[in-house]
Fold this sequence. Notes:
The complex is a heterodimer. Helix content of chain A is 73%, strand content 1%. Chain A is mainly alpha-helical. Chain B is mainly alpha-helical. Chain B has one domain: ABC transporter involved in vitamin B12 uptake, BtuC, CATH 1.10.3470. Chain B has 11 helices and 2 strands. Chain B has helices at residues 2-24, 31-49, 53-74, 84-106, 132-154, 156-166, 168-173, 178-200, 210-225, 230-250, 258-269, and strands spanning 122-124, 129-131. In chain B, strands 1-2 form a two-stranded antiparallel ribbon. In chain B, strand 1 (122-124) and strand 2 form a beta hairpin.
Amino acid sequence: MGLVAPFVVYPIFLMHALCFALFACAFNLLLGYTGLLSFGHAAFFGAAAYAAGYAVKMMGLGPASGIFVGTMAAVVLGSVFGMLVIRRQGIYFAMITLALAQLVYFFFLQSSFTGGEDGIQGIPRGHLLWFINLEDDRKLYYVVLAIFLFGFVVIHRTIHSPFGQVLKAIRENEPRALSLGYDVNKYKLQAFVISAALAGLAGATYAIVFTFVTLTSADWHTSGDVVLMTLLGGMGTVFGPIVGAFAVVTLQSQLSDKVGSLVTVIMGAMFILCVLLFRNGIVGETVGLYHRIVGRRPD
Amino acid sequence: MLGLVNGCFYAMLSLGLAIIFGMLNIINFAHGALYMMGAVFTWVALTQFGINYWWSLLLVPLVIAILGVMVERSMLRRLYKLDNLYGLLLTFGIALVTEGFFRHRYGVSGLPYSIPDAFAGAFNLGFMFLPKYRAWVIGASLLTCFATWFVIERTQMGAYLRAATENPKLVQAFGINVPVMITLTYAIGVGLAGLAGVLAAPATQISPLMGTNLIIVVFAVVVIGGMGSILGSIVTGLGLGLIEGLTKVFYSQAANTVVFLIMALVLLVRPAGLFGKER
């Protein structure tokens, strides 16, 4: 499906959705599998986008190195944030990540290398391995698809490893995981850094695809968007965030020229509906429905 | 001086957040949106209905409190048995809806609201001029904070409230209607946000975006102070407002970020917050 998609749908739109799908999957590793709600994930997405954009445009690196630099920037930032944020428990986690992300936002707003309100414009896409010309949208699409699949496999492997089992144990009952001898804070920090790194990978790729970076990518609205994608698709499910990301990106691109600023209202209303009516999200509810139908079948 | 005015708003908002969190175990993300609504309603009241500042001071917090009752009864009530992150997500949704709607209706440019006649002009303190309106804001919000503290810590009603925060089931068993108390707590908490909005209307630019920008700072204030003590959140709010104001004078580039930096520092040194106790 992913291979023929660019011949049917506008490739830029697909790449946009894929970047956010990876971003949402990375976010879901924290929220869905570790039970930590980060309200500042746009900081990693944005920081990686800026680092990649700067490396490619100002330092003349290729796109692959640019994406690598961006991801590393997110790793560094994620380690610093992670060390601060695991010092507090529970609902404070969301408030601290939001506040730290706002700090990053103001830093980008005021620094000179980010271009302030204008952002970094005209990032060259360049060539991958000398012969793949990324200026061609379709070729770039396959590269983005490969990056997405790489990220997805990393998350899948993380969740289904013993490490992932410990994360789930922390989500279910943190004191018990602690009493079983697991260094809970270390696991949380590692999960946080992996999530930040993959969010960074998504952000850096986004910068190459769109050839510009603006403050929007580090804005708290973007953090909110990724929360919504995960919630709508179904947190704690493997495919939920992808479904959610495609749904939200489609809605935003379809609606923004029709209703203008009312998009925020619609996003907010979706939050309210998700929390009140289907907390398991699209994928979670579908799976639940399937089990109910199968379960009811007479033996 | 402007720092102290901002500090008053931080204090009132973090106070409301702390009361709501104590009783409902929910972080009210919509708090900033309700503060913004308080300011915009004050403007609407004057320009559309000719209601003056003094009536707004009374009516707008009441309207916000009634809205709060409706929100609590219709939505928040369903979430008490769930993980408290759902409450945060729901109120985030409410904040987005409110902000988006007001932005659609009134645009992003500031709405002007002139200072009421009684507070035009300034006091001459010898070393500086203190605009009368700012003095009023500081006085009024300190009084409000003190009144709230008094009600919670020194009255029968407050004693019930504190008891219900500790152990709602037991208090209910003693024949006190806890669900009604929860609703009232939420109403008072958001009413405080509405009142802060009215006070802010003549002092700042009224804009649909004013709420969310403020609530993120208030979250940092809450993290610094901890939500355990009423007095703690008032003092932290005022203190951080003052520090922010001073930073604006001496090193203005850092004015936006200083509260967040202090938060990071406090997390390193005293993870539970200045007045907090880890649960």
